[in-house]
Amino acid sequence: MTKIRTYIQQLSIAAVLFIAGCGGGGSSSGGGSAPMVGATPAPALSIVALGDSIGNGFGVATPWPVLLGAALGAPVDNNSVTNMQTSFGLSIIEERLDAINPTHVVILQGTNDALRGSVGGAISNLQAMVDIANARGVIAVVATLPPIPRSASENARAADISVGIRGLAGATIAEVRGAMGNGDGLIVDDGVHPNQQGQQVITDVMLATF
Questions:
Q1: What is the model's pLDDT at position 22?
Q2: pTM of the prediction?
Q3: Which of 89, 119, 123, 154 makes an SS bond possible with 164, Cβ 3.0 to 4.6 Å?
Q4: pLDDT value of position 210
């Protein structure tokens, strides 16, 4: 009996040592795998919008920055000022990006450049804005220009600027011009500004880039 009892004790000790070596099972304070570290969550969307009277609605429609923010559930810092050209966007983009620290900058500028005959300057300014955004790790979305049905020459310049926009390095392109076609049913009587349906088309194209 003594030999049997000694043998059982030896087996018990061996079992305890085996369990300890395996980390003690599922105890909260025991061994086993290290706790999983959660992945860093993606930053919440925030947007700086750079535009002109199309981006402020010109008193005829709810503008695309408002519609975009509502659709995404994200804050939009709307810097759309009537009559402003791309030089305006270039003059303020650094300050707005540094102030807001957004995930995206969305740019719809160049219509006033087309109205005033500045095609090359518009493309150069837009590329500079994209470069500034990229240097800060901000995604730059640049929209091609809506049609300008009131004037063939103005519309041709808007088309030329849009060609340049499609070639911007480092930008995500929102193909607004392609979506709006010749503007039938989408532009108010002044031949420049989108109506509410036109603003919605612009917004839907921009949404597709997110």
A1: 41
A2: 0.80
A3: 123
A4: 96
